[in-house]
Amino acid sequence: MELQPVIGLEIHIQLKTKTKMFCSCDNSGENKPANSCICPVCLGHPGVLPVANKQAIEWSALASLALHCQIDEYSKFDRKHYYYPDLPKAYQISQLDQPIGKNGFLWIFNPEIKEEEKVYINRLHLEEDAAKLTHKGNKKDTLVDYNRGGTPLMEVVTEPTIKDSIQAKLFLQELRQIMRYLEISDADMEKGHLRCDANISMRPPGDEKLYPKTEVKNLNSFRSVERALEHEISRQTKLWLEGTPPTEQTTRGWDDSKGVTTDQRSKEEANDYRYFPEPDIPPIHFDITKNTCADKAIKINIECIKTELPELPEGKRKRFISEFDLPYEDVKVLIEEKKKAQYFEQVISELETWVNTQAKDTWTKNKPDLTKLASNWFINKLFPLLEDKSLDITSLKMTAENMGELIHLVFTQKLNSNSATEVLTEMVETGADPSHVIKEKNLGQMSDESELENIIKKVIEDNQKPVEDYKAGKEQALQALVGKTMAETKGKANPEIVIKILKKLI
Length: 506
Ligand SMILES: [Zn+2]
Fold this sequence. Notes:
The structure is a single chain. By secondary structure, the chain is of the alpha+beta class. It has three domains: about 5-200 and about 265-285, no CATH class; about 330-440, no CATH class; about 450-505, Arc Repressor Mutant, subunit A. The protein has helices at about 55-65, 165-180, 220-240, 300-305, 315-325, 330-335, 340-355, 360-390, 400-410, 415-430, 435-440, 450-460, 465-470, 475-490, 495-505; strands spanning about 5-15, 75, 80, 90-95, 100-110, 115-130, 130-135, 140-145, 150-160, 195-205, 215-220, 250-255, 260-265, 275, 285, 300. The strands form four sheets. It has an eight-stranded mixed sheet with strand order 5-6-9-1-10-11-12-13. It has a three-stranded mixed sheet with strand order 2-15-16, with no helix packed on it. It has a three-stranded antiparallel sheet with strand order 4-3-14, with no helix packed on it. The chain starts with a strand and ends with a helix. Bound molecules: zinc ion (ZN).
């Protein structure tokens, strides 16, 4: 029997607002001493009044727009009740039936089949995070850090239409990139800024029914999401083949070191959350142009938020591929970070200016070669250099104009690759311009042909054997002479010009 996986994801994303979701406590508590960023509101003392963080609502609306979600006129908060040490109020302020965004989708590019695939999103809502529990000594002792309690958390829920583990991983990576492009979350999975639970069941092809699902928790890397889903697919397939498919919904935890999921009794199981509308927080009104807007509502200007939406990875990917004639693999690396992509575009624009100082149509004629050359220098030289030196592109001293000039020097063969690498390293360190570095280090290629001719004449005189061989028709003998010339000029000669002169003189 052939079976198909049915996968849905629930992703929690920590927003990096200055303050917490419903109080004015510092929201950077993860880097502060435990229980130092707390107040009566986020500790759930009786009689306190929560005040919603407008920035968090605006950012959730921005994320909803980026995920092509519909945003209704109204949204509201609800109380979700459960009792647990990480939740001092014994309820979490969340959203039940009027989330901020719903019915969205995301295009992801699958490099294996070289096609775009659509992943449907059910909803995006906003809630507060619970405290952080650290279990010690076989769960006998548990430490609670309330710094994380009450921090703004966005939950994105996909439809169960993800077809395999690779698509799940690609979706998460795209989502992380979008959050970073929007600059609303660091979305670092290892640090728990982006947390994922995966729901999975199997079914025969053509069957539209949803069978009892397994919820897999503790997935804290893209790799673990992929591996856990692979493991569940084979575990559940085996149960189906044995005639005993899962009959009830279960929760399992992922054990990364053993590479298996294990049965987990969840605190949520058989739980009635007794949701009801949060009475202390007014509803959110997104369309403030209407005069139906309630006086007390939290007013959010959605038209204004729409103008804040930047170009997203999907659009940038397509534009870079068509505008710069670059392959997908290059573009993927170039646009990984918004700031790096911006810098690349600035350099291309400067390069165009440099190239056009030669002759007006040089750029148009050589554009694909020039953009590919620039892309290679970014991916193979500049990015590894930044990584090596732990430098951020935003703090780079080297201007885009100077980087453009360097690539132009390589393109016009005034600088060979080894020398250019040396120049680039110096430019990244000091911010100096390339012509200055070349002069200082005496790295420029010899462009004076008469000087080169004198050197080559001497090379021919001193190496009669290869000269005779070449004359006798041995083409590769010329390479020996090129090598000798390069050695004489300490690598500063342009090999193509050397060959031209050699052929002329012999
Ligand atoms: Zn607080």
